[in-house]
Each structure stands twice: as C-alpha cells, then as structure tokens.
C-alpha cells in the first residue's frame, strides 16, 4: 500500500534560517504529492502540490520538487519567519481511481525570533 | 469565504457516553471525510462519504459510525466513548472526480478536540 514518511520534529530554527523538512514515499504507479500546513488552532490548508516527476510546487516562499528517482518530496524555504511556525504534513494521492490521500505523521516547526 | 465548520472545538466526555461530532460545509462538495489526528501518527481516515446516505469505511472505523442525511452535513458518532478515542478529529470535504486540479484537494475544518475521561 501507499505510505509517507516524514522526519520527526519538532524542528526549531531561528528566524531567517534555511528550512528543510524531509518527506519520502512508497506508492505504486504515479502518485501526486502535497504539502499541507496546520497553523495553531486551525485545520489543515494545502500549501503546495506536484502532479508528476520533476514538477516543482511552490507557494509563500516554500518549494518542493517531486523526485521520482529518490521517491522524495522535501519541503524547503530559504528564510523562515516566526509566522511559519506550524505543523507540516506531506501527503500523496495514488494514481488508482478512488484513492484517498495518505498522510505522513506531520512535522512541527518552531521558529524563534 | 468557503469553509468547513465543525460545531464543537473542545469536548470533554465520560467513558460510555454517546458522542456526536457535527460537520457542515458550504461548498456543495460531494465528498466528506472524518480523520483523527494523533501526535506522530498523522491523519488517519475513519470514514468517508461520496454522496448523501453513502458511507465507506476508512482505515480505522472501529468504534465509530457516521451519518450523511444531507449533502452539506456529515456527522461522526461514537456510540460508547472510550479513553483511547481521546484525539483531535478533523472533518474535510472535496469535489468528486479524478485528478488534482481541483478535485481531491481537501478543505479542512478547524478540528474538534475530544477528551474522554
């Protein structure tokens, strides 16, 4: 079956530091990949997505590249802000019809001023 | 502003009580979902529904049931709450259909944190 593995948190960074949150996946076929973000007290929001190999998703300064050869979709940001403090979830949607989203365990990011 | 609304943000119940968690969406979405979120385990799908009066089991349906009498409302029911059901419950919805351009991208509610004593 499909699975998503994320690095465990929390990840604690100072403002303006470089961020990487690792995500690897196992899936049959050609899945689509997502990053969702959950700010404190809120539900999950779609941050970015990529639908095929070598696609780069980007939003709000975050980027992730769909690497089929390494089955990875690592999230990066060049300069984090305190307002980026949240829990980040990597997810995949299988290519089979009717597949549900499969989520990783989530990674908490804490950015200190 | 489209949204998914979960009626209760925080609930405290006792073991054995019947618990209802309500979710309403105003986007005319066909699909609705209930997940539970636990630290380190991410989101696990409990039940989902493709249409009114339809329901399908997710990965962890044991101890739960659901009801979808109207398109906009999807209820999660704990018939007899237990302490291991203490968790954050998230409702989500999406349009039906294949592909990721719009379909299958979930819109989430803010969550309902349930504590069972």
What brief labels describe this structure?
heterodimer; A: 113 residues; mainly beta; 6-stranded mixed beta sheet; 4-stranded antiparallel beta sheet; globular; B: 117 residues; 7-stranded mixed beta sheet; 12 strands; 50% strand
What can you tell me about this protein's structure?
Chain A has 113 residues and is mainly β. Helix content of chain A is 0%, strand content 50%. In chain A, strands 2, 5, 6, 10, 11 and 12 form a 6-stranded mixed β-sheet that branches. Chain A has a 4-stranded antiparallel β-sheet with strand order 3-9-8-7, with no helix packed on it. In chain A, a hairpin with a 7-residue loop joins β10 and β11. Chain A is globular. The mean pLDDT of chain A is 92. Chain B is mainly beta and 117 residues long. Helix content of chain B is 0%, strand content 50%. Chain B is built from no helices and 12 strands. Chain B has strands at residues 4-6, 10-13, 19-21, 23-25, 31-38, 42-49, 56-57, 65-70, 73-78, 87-94, 107-108, 112-116. In chain B, strands 2, 5, 6, 7, 10, 11 and 12 form a 7-stranded mixed β-sheet that branches. Chain B has a 3-stranded antiparallel β-sheet with strand order 3-9-8, with no helix packed on it. Chain B has a two-stranded antiparallel sheet with strand order 1-4. In chain B, a hairpin with a 3-residue loop joins β5 and β6 (42-49). The mean pLDDT of chain B is 90.
Write down the overall geometry of chain A. Answer: globular
- Largest sheet descriptor of chain A: 6 strands, mixed
Helical content band of chain A: under 10%
Which of globular, elongated, flat, extended, rod-shaped describes the shape of chain B?
Answer: globular
Percent of sequence in beta strands of chain A: over 45%
Indicate the proportion of strand residues of chain B: over 45%
Note the run of SSEs of chain A as H and E: EEEEEEEEEEEE
- The H-and-E topology of chain B, N to C, reads as EEEEEEEEEEEE
The count of DSSP E runs of length 2 or more, i.e. the number of strands of chain A, is 12
| Spans of at least 5 consecutive residues with low confidence of chain B | none
The most extensive contact between chains is:
A-B, 22 and 23 residues
Tell me the distance between the termini of chain A.
Answer: 41 Å
Tell me the number of helical segments of chain B per DSSP (H or I, 4 or more residues long).
Answer: 0
**Structural class designation of chain A:** mainly beta
Tell me the Rg of chain A in angstroms.
14 Å
Task: Using the CA coordinates, give the radius of gyration of chain B.
Answer: 14 Å
Largest sheet of chain B: 7 strands, mixed
Report the uncertain regions of chain A. none
Quaternary structure type:
heterodimer
Overall average residue pLDDT of chain B: 90
Q: Give me the number of helical elements of chain A.
A: 0
